[in-house]
Amino acid sequence: MSQKNRLSGGLLNRAKPLNFTFDGASYQGYEGDTLASALLANGVRLMGRSFKYHRPRGPISSGSEEPNAIVELRTGARQEPNTRATIAELFEGLSAKSQNHVGSLKFDFLAINDRLSSFFAAGFYYKTFMWPKAFWEKLYEPMIRRAAGLGSLSMQDDPDHYDKGFLHCDLLVIGAGPAGLAAALTAGRSGARVILADEDFTPGGRLNAETFTLGDASGADWARAAIAELTSLPNVRILTRTVVIGAFDHGIYGALERVSDHIATPASGKPRQILWRIYSQRAVLAAGATERPIAFKNNDRPGVMLAGAMRAYANRWAATPGQTVAVFTNNDDGLRTASDLLAKGVKVAAVIDSRADGPAFTGAEHLRGAVVTDAKGRLGLSSIKVKLASGETRQIATEALGVSGGWNPNVHLTCHQRGLPVWNAELAAFVPGTLPVGMVVAGAANGQLSTAGALASGAAAAGQALEGLGLTVKSADLPQAEDAPIRVTPLWYVPHKGRAWLDQQNDVTVKDVKLAHQEGFRSVEHLKRYTTMGMATDQGKTSNISGLAVMAEMTGKSIPETGTTIYRPPYTPVPIAAFAGRSAGADFRPKRLTPSHKWAAEQGAVFVEVGMWMRAQWLPKAGETHWRQSVDREVLATRGSVGICDVTTLGKIDVQGPDAAEFLNRIYCNPFGKLPVGKVRYGLMLREDGMAMDDGTTARLAEDHFVTTTTTANAVGVYRHMEFCRQCLWPDLDVQIISTTEAWAQFSVAGPNARNLLQKIVDPEHDISNEAFPYMGCGEITVCGGFRARLFRISFSGELAYEIAVPTRYGDGLVRAMMEAGREFNAVVYGTEALGVMRIEKGHAAGNELNGTTSALNLGMGGMVNKKKDSIGSTLSEREGMNQAEALNLVGFQPVDPSKSLLGGMHFINQGAEANARNDQGYMTSVAFSPSLGHSIGLGYLKNGAARKGETLRAVNPLAGEEVMVKVVSAHFVDPEGERLRG
Amino acid sequence: MIINHPLLGPRDSQEFVYLGDASLIDRPDWQAEGAVDAFYEYLYQRENPAGLHQELWFHEQGDRSWLVVTRNTLTHEITKVELARDVARSRGRSK
Lengths: 983, 95
Hints:
The complex is a heterodimer. Chain A contains 22 helices and 50 strands. Among the domains of chain A are: 13-124, 2Fe-2S iron-sulphur cluster binding domain, sarcosine oxidase, alpha subunit, N-terminal domain (Ubiquitin-like (UB roll), Roll), CATH 3.10.20; 162-289 and 409-468, FAD/NAD(P)-binding domain (3-Layer(bba) Sandwich); 596-647 and 744-838, Gyrase A, domain 2 (2-Layer Sandwich), CATH 3.30.1360.120; 651-739, Aminomethyltransferase beta-barrel domains (Alpha-Beta Plaits, 2-Layer Sandwich), CATH 3.30.70.1400; 885-983, Elongation Factor Tu (Ef-tu), domain 3 (Beta Barrel). In chain A, the strands form 13 sheets. In chain A, strands 8, 9, 12, 13, 14, 15 and 28 form a seven-stranded mixed beta sheet that branches. In chain A, strands 41-42-43-40-34-44 form a six-stranded mixed beta sheet. Chain A has a six-stranded antiparallel barrel with strand order 45-48-47-46-49-50. Chain B is of the alpha+beta class. Chain B has a single domain (2-90), classed as 2-Layer Sandwich (Folate-binding fold), CATH 3.30.2270.10. Chain B has two helices and six strands; from the N terminus they run E-E-E-H-E-E-E-H. In chain B, the strands form two sheets. In chain B, strands 3-4-5-6 form a four-stranded antiparallel beta sheet. Chain B has a two-stranded antiparallel sheet with strand order 1-2. The radius of gyration of chain B is 14 Å and the shape is globular. The relative contact order of chain B is 0.24. Classes of the chains: A alpha+beta, B alpha+beta.
């Protein structure tokens, strides 16, 4: 197809034609085109359908503020919905599709919504779909979601990588238009470390879109030369295709670099996008301004666009939206569009200037004091209706209309820390108010709309920023440039019957704003939420101020009195993938592997995530088809002979110093001062409110040296707490602590043959007989011929058991050596499930019991809270409410009918009582099938449970309608006297 | 946010873990009259100032120092950063 609306000139590489498709049809454009400019050049104005009414729409802008030309790019796994055709760079083979229609783009079945628009006015969700209530979830919501959906997802994994990066600079310059370039040149020549970020692929901003000259060069040439100079400076980094999305605390800015969006597939090793975190000393915001439309009836016809965009398409992209165009303006800037298009040889049917006193315009019919009242051409503009100053109306044939209602400075980033913009009556626009610390605003973003003003304010802003940093400023020599005022007479909408569009992406009309006013939603924030104005992906960049002006007129207040909504990050949409970066899929977070991981994987272990750790859950043997078979075998083999379990994940904290014992005395509720060297003691740690925080064992290796363990889950938190106590509460205690969790590989060796096995591993000079190394003993030993190790005689399973630790690098070797030594005892390795079963059989509390709501008393350890010393939590554990006779006690439960299973979370109800919250007697914390006993067992908290052994209760689960009769028993199901572990 | 660590210089706040009001340093005497009430006040009662606030931050992904950061809750401006150990000593805490 020919490029019938392609003009001469422009910043295109005509030597490089590019083929692309849109909705299946093939077209050609040039390198330098966007999808929108290439489609316009090919005579395509219709590019999408609106969100609610499915109105046919074309692009109204040439930048990131675009509300209408929202398309799907690419196919397959790289399919990307909701992208703006106005900033999508054309590349060879690009496949683009319009979205949000059922049927074709030209015939959309859901356009029926437009005919039914009287039912879909603002607030229609709240009014229409209220009843019957049950219809919402099943009918209304799915229907609305389908109708209102934007693009579609490929439902395939994104094959590309996304990175995160960190940059530091003295000065961040946001925007590479005339102001930003002047700022970057000033700072760059002065030797400051500069980052210049611009969202476009060709820096220069409006300089590329205008015909102005700077000195004796064209704007585009001057911009190119400025970029070349900046590129040559080693202290300047230029980031193109990079939009600064947010201004955060202390000079930190977020920016999204679209590294590979403009090519079919990222180059090898390159990410698709990078989310930068930029640490800046100072920032110059030179983000430019966004033109705003004037609303009139049917102003959303494809072909109606912003005048500045029409000019940009003609000058930069050599494309016109029609062979004949017209311009509708309330300011001098709109007249430039007419003259630029004329200069390109495009017929200008008329220039409609709402001002009766505007400057004269020659070259086309100039209708002063006139307004556009209607537009015709459903799939593309064919004519406009104009009301002349005389009151007569005229129909004017045109394929496109450029509309200018004035320019709004892009103040967004100035508001990200709650700064409010202020009204400038001369520009009829908001300009920056209170700024984030370190930010200076320049150019059109600050209301300096002329080129000369932008250059001068950019240089001045950089100078101000550098002086603040104590740097010497070399003044940049600025070229001569146009300095014309904009001269705007506000006109927000043309009064009319019918619908005039403000927010084209969310289909909000002038009428909707009036309806919001009529129904009392008059504050800016209510207006926004009631009409959804400004809530689409474009965040109302072209509509918010106009909507606000309509509301101001309705309330009879001024625009600044009416206020403005707060702008929040991000400035433009950011893909979730960019926020995730490399933290996706299996790399979502770091994985910690135990020293025996490789060995366990060789054994076919099933792993489970425990915090960040991967632990062996059970290790199936050939023929085992259900996890219970493996777990039961591991338990019985351990209790019958010997089992080994990797317990490296338990937190290990080394405590040293003359005051080490005193320190432990204060962080554990039970005392440690008299613990002899070579002994281990169980410790219960309370929070200051008296609730149990964590538990573990502490071994005294020397008078001033302890090794304490924490639970796997709390290792980080307990260490943090201990540092808090050490540094903030008792800063002069002479004690040092360090986490050694990763330094030691630790294994539990449990079962009647544990000692027999270890005697083959531990070097013979270390006597580990029961007499020499009794229960709760510990010591530093050597293994396997001189390797340093630590041995602790402690037991979680209730068996004769040890924990043996070696430096981590020997962990893999040790487990292999122990399994070899254990062959004659049929030693097994057991996983976390068997570990859990054995600790429940033994009645040892774990995370389910230390759940943050239970005290030492609840756990049956009330006597451990030593009253003769100060320790964290000891004072508040004396509170009356925590010491009542009805207090929960940890006890054991078993089903009256041994064939029944217990469930964790079941609540206990007395027999004959109704199962409700008032009759609640407590709850089940842990359950397991005990292979040792042959039936299900449980641990749980029961009111006054210690005194209720032998009672029969109902254990209920009202959610699932389940109930089991249970008997209250001792929590120690196996070896209640503890003979095994002392043997 | 950036926290200017007294030993390490400016660090991103992502390296830190926040605890709360620096009044947590002022742990009451367990043997004093009315200790239970004093501990109750200490543990649960907090000022919630709109303005300067002294708070505890832990440099968990750093040197493991506890810091007392004076931050304006309205602007996030940080006016002072001290080692919590020094603050504790200045408030009379020792062993």
